[in-house]
Amino acid sequence: MSKLKCTYQSFGDLAILVDFPPVEDQTSLANLLKLQTHLRNLFKHELEDLVFTFNSMCLHFKKPPKLAFIKEKIEHVLRNGSHKAELLFRKHWEIPVCFDLSLCADLIEHFDGDIEQVTDYQQIICLQDYLLGFYGFMPGFCYLSGLPKDLAIKRKASPSRTTARGSLAVGGRQLGIYPQDSPGGWCVIGRTPIRFFDATKDQPLFAQIGDIISFKPVTLEHFNKLQELVDLGMLPMKNSIYHGDN
């Protein structure tokens, strides 16, 4: 990844917002995650929190920071590339998804009722791995990067009033999973029984930023059985340590 072209600005009295161009390929996103880890260590005594999105980082400090000093520190890291030596400890989650036609009316409409194109699209989706880049929009809504350009689907002109919890949807070049019933403007292509946010758990989010996500197709009958297990508090899916680029 070439050196990020960042802009810096104060964000209130205790924070500095670092903006950079959106990064879409997995290697570059992994390097951003390494940068985040490196900065947490670099400013560990001064830093309260670091919030990461696909095109910005907001560093929240315990005391009012000096913008010029923080900017120079970060630019020095980017110049010498020291953050790239950080190791990422990530998991690979295999998420069961039902692609039954009853659950993907948006995709059917997108392809003007051509069911062959619908099923071809869903099959290709399952051949890819995706990087969990960040959470946003609502608690537990994960943004997944890695969608090939030719699979991009524009957001709806008029959002749906209700998109069901667990809906796997496409919005431009990203995939997302709705953690609860909510309005939604993305094209729904399937649905998973897995809860991506559970406020009753000590750790409401099981998947962490930087984890790799892939999808395993299941039948509607299997989906309903898995839903029963999820309602009992279980996470019926596979996970493993990800041994990709570090």
What does this structure look like?
By secondary structure, the chain is α+β, with helices and mostly antiparallel strands. The protein has two domains: 7-85, Gyrase A, domain 2, CATH 3.30.1360; 91-241, Cyclophilin. It is built from five helices and 14 strands. The strands form three sheets. The protein has an eight-stranded mixed β-sheet with strand order 12-9-10-7-6-13-5-14. A hairpin with a 6-residue loop joins strand 6 (130-135) and strand 7 (142-145).
**What's the gyration radius in Å?**
19 Å
What name is given to the CATH topology of the largest domain? Cyclophilin
CATH arch. level architecture of the largest domain? Beta Barrel
Helices and strands: which structural class? alpha+beta
**What is the CATH H-level superfamily of the largest domain?**
Cyclophilin-like
How widely separated are the two ends?
A: 13 Å
How much is the average pLDDT?
92
How many β-strands, per DSSP? Answer: 14
Query: Uncertain segments of ≥5 residues (pLDDT<50)?
Result: none
Strand order of the biggest β-sheet: 12-9-10-7-6-13-5-14
